[in-house]
Design goal:
The protein is an alpha/beta fold. A hairpin with a 4-residue loop joins strand 20 and strand 21. It binds phosphoenolpyruvate and magnesium ion (MG).
């Protein structure tokens, strides 16, 4: 028969799926012999059943009753018994920590009789007993009975009348209990449930229900926590931190979660219960002060913290309560930390002999490394924080405040740095978002339009800064403390922390980027990054190459650790001054004219390649032949039409206008691009291949690879390959000729395509576009925020590779390509090549390398190492 309830002595930390993080860790601490109040955990499986069926599973009530009896025997008291009551807390606890998102009810078991028993237990402390009772009604009313918490707060504030809560007398608190009971009666039409078992049953169901509270749903979506896990519920014998000055409650970290430094970090609040610390009703004191207040408990706590760190081999955070000089542990878990702390702590733990370097690599992430690479605000000087919102898209941005997109575009056009401030953004704000250095909104979460679009653009964004009142019509916003910011005032926003500052905060470059650029590691953080990167490099199987199309980016990529170029987009070399030459090519009326235009382009191409080959000497350079639609290189249709209409057009303008009209396409992304262009304009690809070969001959150590884009059928590839191979032979240059896999058809016929390709590189930007039927250029702004809200996907498939769809095509192509040509080299060069989850996918799918933009290379190196250490490698090559 299914077991739905586990005593703390029965569980352990590996049972998080079933017991949730809190329950599993309470059991673990119990097993370690630490002072945990006795209790038991109702499994998340019971919660899932309740949420699916609308009723608790059969047998659950019986199991709870049995465990409660055992708890009563252990404590020598009965739940809610009039003269000597046992009280319990009911606490949520899911597999993944969702701080403050779900419910907790304390002091279950109190009623008009047992309140006297509690006072007696507490040595005649009536005040404490009535305070505990009013807390029960308040928490129960709010969380179980759905009564507006403000009603209770209001009654309490009125009674306090400016005094501290500790100043309230027993009589006053007894009166407050009556007031609270009145609120319950008025709001629910029923009396507050006096039967302790009813209180317990209802509280358990309320915790189950809180899994689907709107804020919990939102939090899960943001943190990508699956929606169907459910929460476990912990029933724990109450211990009291509010019994007087020899009692209290606190939180602690085993080391600083901000910097990773070892020391004593935490807060303590005398004569209080847990929720008082979080609610901030009185000022806490630093944990160090506990040494003075209660040396015995302090020493015991430090020793427990050491035990926990050694046992968990990681930073732990802790909640504890002291009841009349006796320390009790109420919670522990592996604590959250900043990116810098994650690297420092991982290496410190290696040095302490607690973890291996392999484990250290798994303890940090590519996202954390990326955070450390953004420019950041200087910690020096005055920083006036005016509010904090959500850290939606990292970076540090400073600029003048504007309230409309039009104004953002206008001022940016005059060379000003601006921050676009909106209540929320919508697709019409796109131009303003592009023009601004950063975006700040007062509404919306991490998946709001502003957040999604800003992240896509790599733009700094703070969203959901709810304390701000934004008025676009009055061109101002207000912040707490009577601060008013008008259009043109300067603010600074930190997209990594969500902080908003008044005025200009100086920005400093990342020391981690300086290190990747070649600076010697000289501070603790950089040394930690250096050690972890070195180890990731030593274990990874995937190669890491760069997407770069000029010598400068190639050189930087090499410094960042690139082992070659995976994608050099040659069309970027046709822009700027060379447009003119391309126009000549398009307008060529005869074979001779076309050849002349191509001949004029060739030396330019050759010199570009020479620069890249030099920067990447000795390493492979994959050059992709020209890809995008030709009309992109031609002048604007409207501008030319206006010229023609006003009679200002020259003969060349008129010829260009005709060409632009002729080449106009409804769906350019699906039109005359890539290999199609090479087949339609004779000599174009041949010119590029010749330029590559000539350049390679001039740079000893050049290792060119020629890549054909947008192939859908092997016949296309065969046609251009034959010509390329002929040129290579004639010039005596050795180069692989391969193809991109960017169309679903190429993936599905990879077995045939591999006959003519010496390597594949997955162009997952186009492959995603064509697999989903999503326009790369339009859909993210148009409807992705809605799709994210609806949970159709948790993250844009252009950002993280869609394993089920696009990933399946990749796997098919890998398998069938290698079946035809066993040594087929496989890489990826779409944007996904620098995305952590996608890098893991590439490792699992057995690719040889990933290729990404230079700044993502360290992230890809780290994640390629992590992929080896966190996946079972047996199913890959
Ligand atoms: C791709 O489609 O993934 C790719 C790398 O090519 P581009 O982004 O240039 O279309
Ligand atoms: Mg492409």
């Amino acid at each position: 028969m299914a077991k739905f309830v586990y005593d703390f002595t029965e569980g352990n930390r590996d049972l998080k799926d079933l017991l949730g993080g809190k329950g599993a860790n309470l059991a673990e601490m119990t097993n370690l012999g630490l002072p945990v109040p006795p209790g038991f955990t109702i499994t998340s499986e019971a919660c899932r059943h309740y949420l699916a069926e609308g009723s608790v599973p059969e047998g659950l009530e019986r199991e709870i009753a049995d465990h409660l009896s055992a708890l009563e025997s252990a404590m020598g008291k009965k739940l809610g018994q009039a003269d000597d009551p046992l009280l319990v807390s009911v606490r949520s606890g899911a597999k993944f920590s969702m701080p403050g998102m779900m419910e907790t009810v304390l002091n279950i078991g109190l009623n008009d009789e047992s309140v006297h028993g509690l006072a007696k237990q507490a040595g005649g402390n009536d005040r404490f007993a009535w305070d505990s009772y009013r807390r029960l009604i308040q928490m129960f009313g709010k969380t179980v009975q759905d009564i507006d918490g403000e009603l209770f707060e209001h009654a309490l504030e009125k009674l306090k009348n400016g005094r501290q809560d500790t100043d309230l007398t027993a009589q006053e608190l007894q009166g407050l209990v009556e007031t609270y009971k009145g609120i319950v009666r008025e709001q629910t039409g029923k009396d507050f449930p006096a039967d302790p078992r009813d209180q317990l049953r209802l509280a358990v169901m309320a915790v189950f229900d809180s899994w689907n509270a709107p804020r919990a749903i939102l939090y899960r979506r943001q943190e990508r926590i699956p929606a169907d896990l459910g929460t476990a519920v912990n029933i724990v014998a109450m211990v009291f931190g509010n019994l007087g000055d020899d009692s209290g409650t606190g939180v602690a970290f085993t080391r600083d979660p901000g910097s990773g430094r070892q020391g004593i970090y935490g807060d303590y609040l005398q004569n209080a219960q847990g929720e008082d610390v979080v609610a901030g009703i009185r000022n806490t004191v630093p944990l160090q002060d506990l040494e003075r207040i209660d040396k015995g408990s302090y020493d015991e706590l430090l020793s427990i913290m050491e035990t926990l760190e050694t046992h968990y081999r990681d930073l732990c955070d802790i909640e504890f309560t002291i009841e009349r000089g006796k320390l009790w542990m109420l919670q522990t878990r592996v604590g959250k930390r900043t990116a810098a702390a994650a690297f420092r702590i991982a290496v410190q733990l290696v040095d302490q002999g607690l973890i291996t370097l392999d484990e250290a690599v798994t303890r940090v992430s590519g996202d954390q490394l990326a955070q450390l690479m953004f420019p950041r605000f200087s910690q020096e000087g005055d920083r006036k924080t005016i509010t904090k919102g959500m850290n939606a898209s990292p970076g540090a941005a400073v600029g003048k405040v504007v309230f409309t997109s039009e104004r953002a575009v206008e001022l940016a056009g005059q060379g000003e740095d601006v921050i676009l401030v909106r209540r929320e953004t919508n697709p019409d704000d796109l131009s303003g978002m592009i023009a601004a250095r950063g975006v700040l909104t007062s509404r919306g979460g991490k998946t709001s339009h502003a957040a999604v679009v800003a992240r896509g653009m790599g733009k700094t964004c703070v969203c959901g800064a709810e304390e701000l009142e934004v008025s676009s019509s009055q061109k101002r916003f207000t912040a707490p403390g009577g601060i008013e910011v008008r259009e043109g005032d300067v603010i600074s926003i930190d997209g990594s922390t969500g902080e908003v500052f008044l005025g200009e905060v100086p920005v400093v470059d990342s020391v981690v980027v300086e290190y990747f650029e070649g600076a010697q590691p000289d501070d603790e953080l950089v040394k930690a990054v250096d050690r972890i990167m070195a180890h990731a490099d030593s274990v990874r199987r995937l190669g890491v190459r760069a997407n770069a199309d000029n010598a400068e980016d190639s050189a930087r990529a090499r410094r960042f650790g690139a082992q070659g170029i995976g994608l050099c987009r040659t069309e970027h070399m046709f822009l700027g001054e060379r447009r003119q030459l391309v126009e000549d090519l398009v307008l060529a009326a005869s074979k001779q004219e076309r050849q002349a235009a191509l001949d004029a382009l060739e030396p330019h191409q050759k010199s570009d390649f020479i620069g890249i080959f030099r920067a990447m000497e000795g390493l492979p350079v994959t050059i992709r032949l020209i890809d995008p639609p030709l009309h992109e290189f031609l002048p604007d249709l409207v501008a030319l039409s206006v010229k023609a209409a006003t009679g200002e057009a020259t003969d060349k303008d008129r010829a260009l206008l005709a060409a632009v009209k002729r080449l106009h396409e409804q769906n350019p992304m699906l039109g005359l691009r890539g290999v199609r262009l090479g087949l339609v304009i004779p000599g174009l690809f041949a010119m590029q291949v010749r330029a590559i070969a000539e350049a390679a001959r001039e740079v000893p150590g050049a290792r060119p690879e020629i890549m054909i884009p947008l192939v859908a059928a092997v016949q296309e590839l065969e046609a251009v390959r034959e010509e390329a191979v002929k040129i290579l032979r004639a010039t005596g240059v050795d180069a692989l000729v391969g193809t991109m896999i960017e169309t679903p058809r190429a993936a599905l016929t990879a077995g045939q395509v591999a006959e003519a390709a010496e390597f594949f590189s997955f162009g997952t930007n186009d492959l995603t576009q064509m697999t989903w039927g999503f326009s790369r250029d339009d859909v993210e702004a148009a409807f992705f925020s809605r799709y994210l809200e609806l949970g159709i996907f948790g993250v844009s498939p252009f950002e993280t590779l869609d394993r089920d769809g696009v990933g399946r095509l990749v796997r098919i192509a890998v398998e069938e390509g290698r079946a035809t040509r066993p040594g087929l080299k496989l890489g990826i060069c779409g944007e996904h090549g620098g995305d952590p989850d996608s890098v893991h996918f590439c490792h699992e799918a057995g690719l040889d390398y990933v290729s990404c933009s230079p700044f993502r290379i360290p992230v890809a190196r780290l994640e390629a190492g992590r992929a080896v250490l966190t996946h079972n490698d047996s199913d890959t090559r």
